[in-house]
Structures are given as C-alpha cells and as structure tokens.
Design a protein that fits this description.
single chain; mainly beta; Immunoglobulin-like; four-stranded antiparallel sheet; about 5% helix; globular
C-alpha cells in the first residue's frame, strides 16, 4: 500500500532476486480533492514448490521517496513464503505504512 500518493506508484514483485509478474489487481482508495490517494496492489500467482522458504518482496517505486528512505528500503516489504502444499495458489497483500 502506498498512502496518500500522487501520481500513482508502480509496484514490483520479486521472489529472491527474480521479478515475477503474476496477476495484479490495483485499487485506489480514499482519493482526496488534492488528487492524492491510497494505492493497494494485490498479487496472485501460482507458487512453485522451489519458492518455499524464499522471500517474496514488494517494491513501491514513487518519486516522493527520498534517497535516505530508499537507502533504508522504506519502499520495500518482504515475507518469507511458507507453502503448505506442493503446488498451490498464493495471494498476498502488503501494507507499507
């Protein structure tokens, strides 16, 4: 989630260092009169058993992040994947606050 952003941010998703595509659903919430809004992207993809234990990472690209925030990776969030079956669908929503 990108809070009160303008323009719309770009979301990128990774497993390890590999960017993944999947099916992405974008939502624009709480749009104000100043054009700023909260943006949420949900990724849906079919996990490969080799992804178990790897890091799923969402990176938000937006010009409002300062160099210091980017260096501190405030625009990223990760989650270690814990797959419960050999091949299953995985949907995840991350909130960057």
């Amino acid at each position: 989630m990108a809070n009160q952003a303008r323009p719309k941010p770009n979301f990128r998703w990774f497993i390890g260092q590999t960017e993944i595509k999947g099916v992405k659903t974008d939502q624009e919430l709480n749009k104000g009169t100043d054009g700023k809004a909260d943006y949420v992207q949900t990724l849906k993809y079919f996990a490969d058993p080799k992804h178990n234990g790897q890091e799923l990472k969402c990176v938000v690209d937006h010009m409002a992040y300062s160099d210091a925030q980017l260096a501190d990776k405030e625009n990223e969030i990760t989650k270690r994947l814990e797959l419960l079956c050999e091949c299953c669908e995985f949907t995840s929503v991350f909130y960057l606050i």
